[in-house]
Input
Amino acid sequence: MSSRFGGIWPAMLTPLGEDGRVALTVLEQLTELFVSQGLGGLYVTGSTGQWPLFTVEERCLVVERVIRSAAGRIPVMVHVGAAATADAVTLARHAERAGAHAVSAVTPIYYAHSADAVFEYYREIGSATSLPFFVYHLSSVSPIAIGSREYTQRLLAVSNIAGMKITDRDLYTFGLIKAFTGDRLQLLSGADEVMCQAILCGAQGAIGTFYNLWGPACQRARAACAAGDVNAGQAFMLRFQCAIAAVLSSGSIWTFLRAAMRLKYGLEIGKPRPPLGAAECPWTDEDVRQLIEQVDSNP
Amino acid sequence: MSSRFGGIWPAMLTPLGEDGRVALTVLEQLTELFVSQGLGGLYVTGSTGQWPLFTVEERCLVVERVIRSAAGRIPVMVHVGAAATADAVTLARHAERAGAHAVSAVTPIYYAHSADAVFEYYREIGSATSLPFFVYHLSSVSPIAIGSREYTQRLLAVSNIAGMKITDRDLYTFGLIKAFTGDRLQLLSGADEVMCQAILCGAQGAIGTFYNLWGPACQRARAACAAGDVNAGQAFMLRFQCAIAAVLSSGSIWTFLRAAMRLKYGLEIGKPRPPLGAAECPWTDEDVRQLIEQVDSNP
Amino acid sequence: MSSRFGGIWPAMLTPLGEDGRVALTVLEQLTELFVSQGLGGLYVTGSTGQWPLFTVEERCLVVERVIRSAAGRIPVMVHVGAAATADAVTLARHAERAGAHAVSAVTPIYYAHSADAVFEYYREIGSATSLPFFVYHLSSVSPIAIGSREYTQRLLAVSNIAGMKITDRDLYTFGLIKAFTGDRLQLLSGADEVMCQAILCGAQGAIGTFYNLWGPACQRARAACAAGDVNAGQAFMLRFQCAIAAVLSSGSIWTFLRAAMRLKYGLEIGKPRPPLGAAECPWTDEDVRQLIEQVDSNP
Amino acid sequence: MSSRFGGIWPAMLTPLGEDGRVALTVLEQLTELFVSQGLGGLYVTGSTGQWPLFTVEERCLVVERVIRSAAGRIPVMVHVGAAATADAVTLARHAERAGAHAVSAVTPIYYAHSADAVFEYYREIGSATSLPFFVYHLSSVSPIAIGSREYTQRLLAVSNIAGMKITDRDLYTFGLIKAFTGDRLQLLSGADEVMCQAILCGAQGAIGTFYNLWGPACQRARAACAAGDVNAGQAFMLRFQCAIAAVLSSGSIWTFLRAAMRLKYGLEIGKPRPPLGAAECPWTDEDVRQLIEQVDSNP
Output
């Protein structure tokens, strides 16, 4: 199995222009930024990339542009999950044609789907291409429980299954999946809040929102921790969790991300599509700068 | 305020053909059926109508056809909720042009939206038309809590707000909203399982999945209960809850609904779009018939 | 099966003196009050009666005094649930000797007990006496799910099982248990907030905190509703739910109950044992009076 | 502040004899075992020690015997939490007289206590002695949320507050408390399942059930991980989580612990008080041995 799906992967923001359409130039700049930072890979059109707010066509456009810009310099995993299985399959096939390195799909949303229905959805997506397939478990929306031996056995039977992106602050389940599957699955942690902790559960990489902003610092901290500098890992995680808490408790996460990407990188990612970002309060540049530095500093 | 939003409203199934496209002829027949049954109204493209699986264009097509078929003989409320506020606004305006009597929208989905973001979404949809607007609270997916005085005050400030569809088995919250808003809101219950119980919380009608199949029986039972025949209401609800439990615990709700609509009404509603209905087990005609009769019988 | 376990049963407050000990004289007065009000029965040393704060000996003392005062004029059901099965069995046997009409026990607390462990606990308590046994399901603390056919079958196999006190605002489960057990179990609702609604699920009576204060009004409303005056039931429930919400949201429920029992009945129930009642804010007599009247009034 | 509250602390089992009374001799042997293993300290009469099943007198007896046996060779933290604040205060004072090194208390149980009530309970216990006080947050029973700055500020104002035992698989909250309090609180992790992961959140030690059985292996793994051997930490945690899952999913945890302590150490801890351990299935010695070795092995 390929070992390339490791390190820090930003769950890429999808930049939008004033007109609400995808800002393709900024998308290319963002891709270039992450390549230049030497990050592990790009996770495109995921939750942070606002997939539920885009049409299938828009998602294809974003995927094509990122892959073309990346030009093989960084692996690209395309999130193809959708409300309809057929759309997910369409997106998976498109991703393969466009040159993606892997596809990923969140569990079906909104309804109380049975485990059987969820696995049928996985089966169809996994077998739609020859790409490695990563199931995306998002605990806040998933209709089914994971972490049992029965679950992992069913998962290993999915065509092209390569791993999981597990977004859950509870790491017991994460470790059990690793323990039950060993080297047969590549696990990436999706909860930024416990990025380094997940290493101890067998996470070989991390995919998340805040790596758009703090990718290099997170990459350094994660690498240091994985290499044995537990003190550095602890010190970083306390700063990082504090910063995340400040952003989340503000209720204005999208406004923060926009201001921070502009201040730190000079990139204008624009406003997200409502209801995302709706009715948020402004962040002062000073507060944004302080928070950026709080995480980036090496105390 | 209009008093027309009462009685039993099926959350209309959206019939699909073998090709997966909307079966417009069956949709018309279904509309005709509900008109002939003298039901209270039609709730179109809601959760039962599979809204998350359809494009905006498909939803418009369904709405137009139902309203045209209904031809003013029964009120039509159009669910316009969508992942993107802009789509919900587009759908609301379309519903008004198409001749709908009211619009409704579920709270924004998937993300952990703040109350401010939710109300901004309501504000945009409510003010997009001059139609009565009914907020659709679906407890299983809602990111915010309802039932406080603050919530109802904010709700009453939404443009064109006319009421709520409240889908929650916990009726304490329902009653509090009624108590806090009195005659200023029209409340409809969305949890079939507590249809008659919700009368005692001020529900003036009910919208739900199982009224596609058992509309007349539910309408009789609800009317009898509301008129004082508590024994009839109790006897019916015990039979009805039992039947719902049998369907839900089978894990094959869509297969049941399809077989039941065919057996009872000769209408072919087809398979839902996957992942809905995926990996379900078959129901025997005999089991379906028994369950239909269990609810329809007058013991 | 006896039909005596119906109507409105206060989950009796346990009055305490300045010294923190049970105020036996007030306990007798309270018993006399409920007898004079013609309530359905008394539920002694339940959650409202602060059972977790008392020793086994104190609980026996309370039970003896209430039964002696009641003198057969009103049925007495004794809550014998305890952290240790052995204590519950001791309390059940004592209740029988003291002349109780029934025993009841909450599911085991604190730990994540398995269904098997819960039913073994029930079995031991049920078979400890020849009294009718009522399982007390308190959804907020119960470690196991109820409402399946398997659950009700196991329940019906418990020695002397006579019924359940179900404290859950979700009435779907309540109705299923009634539907699955028919006349073999007597069901009493424990969530004051849905007192009348539970009639439609087959509740033959109600046990709860607020019947200490509003017993007669609740009894009238419940009887009227059960007899077919649905409008009266609805009007009462909206007032009652509002009053409950005012008390709960104040965060000072024990202070309210004490002030209200003093103002309305001249009975001094004292302060509960901390941590109950700790750090509560005072209620003004005026606010208490208004709330009392809000429920008692016949608009 | 003392630095002694680190390392691996078994949440001590309370051995019982055939007669159901505390087996004082085994209790002494258990104490001796943990001293000989060089563990970090002893947490007495906690959840694993079955505190809810014992009287105040029995708890005092256990505490006295452990402290006397420990004879200063290992620190002893006494859990004094109780349903009644007064009992907790009595137990705290007794613990101080008996020579305990610290006291600890779980949040008040059973009722939906307000944050104000919880802090008043902490205040009374903390100020009852001059010992360091450790709040015990058990997420499965706690009525209040932790992890906000407001929470930690209130906590730091509690008399003699020295730290927390945090039992929660979600480590985000844990890290935030550390980040908000720095060196002012000593944090110990209570979820065995994430023992090493909690190091990265600032845990300076761990208190838990399974350290009765696997104390030395856990101590070695934890120390290795804290010193930078992340691979060893990961490998151990995967084995440890697997073993915990095997025990928990068996539904027979008490039977396992009893058999395992007998097989590995020749200590007879007896059966717990029902409902704990009720209706459990037997473990074969072979299965128990395999599981013991699975964790103890150095692969």
